[in-house]
Amino acid sequence: MARITTAGCFPAMDARPRSWPVWRLIGVCAVALTTANCAGNNPQRMAGAASSGSEIDPKYGVKASRRLYNEGDVIPKGGGRRFSGKPYVVAGKTYVPRDDAKGYVREGLASWYGSAFHGRMTANGEVFDRHSIAAAHPTLPLPSYARVTNLSNGYSMVVRVNDRGPYHANRVMDLSEEAARALDFHNKGTEKVRVEYVGKASVAGSDDRRLLASLRTDGRPASTGSGSPVMVADLGPDREQPAPERFARTTRPTLAYKPAESDEDTAEAAPAPRPQRAPIILASAAS
């Protein structure tokens, strides 16, 4: 007499013992192994597990804004607003933004952020580009410039601060993926750095060329190549310059990039040539 199963998942089986053919046992084992493998390799759990700088931390990070641009799109430069903001609380800690951070110097860990935030709006209304020289800081004015020195190798450069974060207890700054590459800690994830406030930045135009040109790999403070550790806030004359070689290492105590006198002019040409202006010196970064 046949037995009746309760779940309806298996066919009724004869109560008498019987032996299964070898091929049938092999098939059952194969199905079991396949099922276990699928359960252990859940793509939702594994996605992004090996990609540093691409994870949004729900505990320490604010809610991400909507993505406006995808990888490969041309990211607009500038377009934000000057912003300090009111005191705010993240993970139980209160942060008080500064309108004037003159004399600010801190040492601690810097991390970097990349693809998860690429193309999203920053705290002051700009668009984050992981390929630009940008940074996030909990309290510095937005946008502003800060000099970041990698304390492990002496590399130093000026970055554009245009976003808020990080919020881990021992981290002083989040750098863009490109800035982390320039300071040579992209593969490490975090590095001990010194952050020095330089001054407020312009809300218009691109300063990537000048920031790239500020990189020093000889242990000296980041500068514009004039011998004085200052940052220039004016775009200067509209002359197109070739892009500097990316992260060229040098054995001589010189700039890792050739200084860029101006950025590319992204606006349409005007009927009359624009008069040349002397660059405006923003602030001294000397500590």
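Second entry:
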Amino acid sequence: MAKTARERRPIPALPDELFLWEILIRLPATALLRCREVCRSWRRLTFAADFLLAHHRRQPSLPLVTFDGDQHQTRTVEAFDLRQSPAERRHVLLFNNYYCRGNFEVFASCDGLLLLSLSNGRFTICNPVTRQWTELPTSLTGGDLI
């Protein structure tokens, strides 16, 4: 027996933005940045404060970075994943095994990158997770660092 039009009630439509939110919130940050270029509505959604906060909450925790040493010994940068037991933790980066022998200070940090001020007056950007670093060129103008 066929159902009448009255018996076949359509399911209320869910807003496309809700589906889009649930998909985009699961993307890694780099993929999310690329998705912002798809269209204006995606860009608007991914710049909304509540979306950014929800996306940030879903991201994995970053390792704890510690610094060891004093002015008379080689300093080390060590990173640990706090989700691991102490027995499983390993050093992600030891600076005394890499380029940066000698003293340095952490001048700034942003999104896991460290800006190190070396004892020779130069600066190095370091990513402790990937074990990559690069020394910044000296200023051509001789200006002050702000």
